Amino acid sequence: MADFETDLSGSFHGNSRFYRRAVSDDIPSTNLNSPLIEDCSEYKRRWASIRVLYLTMFLSSIGYSMIMPSVWPYLQSLDSDTTAGFLGWVVAAYSIGQLVTSPLLGRWANRYGTLAPLVASTSIIAVSNIVYGYLNAIPAGVKYFMIGARVLTGVGCANVAVTRSFVASATTLKERTATMANVASFQAIGFILGPVLQAAFTPMGATFVSWEPIKLQLNMYTCPAFLSAILAIINVVLLCCLFTEYGVDDDHDSVVIRKDVSYTSGISTASSTDVMVVKVRVDYVAIAVSLIIYFGLLFVFSFFETIITPLSIDMYGWTHTEAVLYCGLMLSWAGFVSVIAYIGIKPLSKRVDERIILIGGLVMMAVSFLLSLPMGDQYPILQAADLTPAINQTAPSVNGTHGPTVGCLLQYLWCRHTPIIHLVQLLVSVTVVSLAYPVCVVILSALYSKILGPAPQGTMQGWLTSAGCCGRIFGPMFVSNVYEWYGPYVALPSVAGIIVVTVMVNVVSFRRLVPYQGGRKMSIINT
Q1: Positions of the chain with pLDDT under 50
Q2: How far apart are CA 267 and CA 318, in angstroms?
Q3: ∠ CA(258), CA(443), CA(480), 5° rounding?
């Protein structure tokens, strides 16, 4: 154990009123102020704030998932020389932005409250999607501008850490696992609807409406980005109108309103120059293990984010339009399965040790990748021998007309000797991953918040998000290059191996992954 000192100067400046939930008569009083019982109206206001963040997670998720199925064909339409290896950088760019910003937003939320960083980050999401939609207007180096737009989106989506931090601080230990599951469920619902909306835009094709005076193009690639920007603006408005700061004392189950308000009730409060310092003893080994496991989870899941669209084109000979449509539907199915998993987490976590559930989910993920290994004697269709990317090639169709060339690129030497992954195999693998991955994320997030204990968690939740970002940075680069060089025969077992290592770390550290058990000291110092 080690001491962890947290300065709550920004969160508790000004007139703040402290409420305690009516849990039991023998709850000791904190040394800050005389607490008030949290009545029904305050309870409802607290949960209204939590539910606003459910919506925030939903809107952020739907904006992200709408774009992902079309990134690869959009990239090739902007720069025909782009390879799958560069796609890894584009996917990783999102996580690079999130990696750098998550701890900073968490620190900001700790010192000055949750609302300001949420509004700022969500506004950045709107701007980044507008930039993404206008990439076609850039005359040169457009693929690098795409990376910049994705980095900016990642900066905005670092608000995931702030959201988790608020949910952890505004719920009791008994409420937390179920509430974390709800947060993840709303993410999953957004993940479902995003690809469905992308599929709905597919009939627009690559050229739908163009307005030359403002360089605006509306098509199946840009419309999801512009819709994401609109949703982000709506999100900002709702946050400003409906959100209120709250916090919960894990030791005593007391609820704290963390919003500056004026009172005439005569309740004594900390003065505007007072700073509350909380000193807690946390298990940094358990924290480090949690970060390693989260890194492994996101590293592995990046396989589907990065490879599923180019893999479907290589394996099944789909055109870009077909790949966007069918992969969007596949990801929608994955999101639907994830919601089922989230619903099952609540009753399951009450009956089974959360650490056991986490290990079981990781094992399921490893199995899912092995289930999708190529087998049989059916091989991919090969593209034309000039090695030009598919978007610039044409080949005669059955009726004699010409259309885009489809199939596996000849520069992928493995295409000649690697059987296809049968579509049923891929669907089964996606289904198993979609059941296991959300269970692992929710359980680990809940465990992590419990390990941290009563201190404000903004910064530490930012580090958890950053660990996941590292997985999403190195995962796409690793997966895309291994896939390009060696194909699925090597890429899939490699990813399964990462999961096995993660399971071993989990098993070795099993006894350390328990809720916070240390003491803490709280004091008011006059500044």
Answers
A1: 2-36, 252-277, 385-404, 520-527
A2: 68
A3: 110
DSSP one-letter code for 208: S
Residues ≥6 apart with Cβ < 8 Å to 301: 433, 437, 471, 475
Task: Count Cβ atoms within 10 A of the Cβ of residue 510 and give its class: 0-12 exposed, 13-18 middle, 19 or more buried.
Answer: middle
C-alpha dihedral (234, 240, 243, 249), degrees to nearest 10: 130
Residue 365 exposure: Cα atoms within 13 Å on the Cβ side:
32
Q: Is the dihedral of CA 31, 33, 34, 40 positive or negative?
A: negative
Residue carrying the six token digits 């404000």:
456
H helix or E strand, kind and range, residue 78? helix 71-78
Three-state secondary structure of 296-335: HHHHHHHHHHHHHHHHHHHHHCCCHHHHHHHHHHHHHHHH
| CB distance 158 to 102 below 8 Å | yes
State which amino acid sits at residue 198: Q
> Is the four-CA dihedral 454, 458, 464, 465 of positive or negative sign?
positive
CA-to-CA distance for 303 and 488, rounded, in angstroms? 11
Contacts of 342 (CB under 8 A, 6+ apart): 181, 182, 184, 185, 188, 438, 442
Residue 426, CA distances (Å) to 27, 76, 372, 373 in order: 54, 24, 6, 9
pLDDT tens digit string along 44-53? 888 888 888 8
Q: Is the pTM of this model over 0.70?
A: no
Q: How many residues does the chain have?
A: 527
- Give the position of tokens 């919003």: 259
- Fill in the amino acid letter for 381: I
Q: What is the pLDDT of residues 268-317, one digit of tens each?
A: 333 333 444 455 567 788 889 999 999 988 888 877 777 888 888 888 88
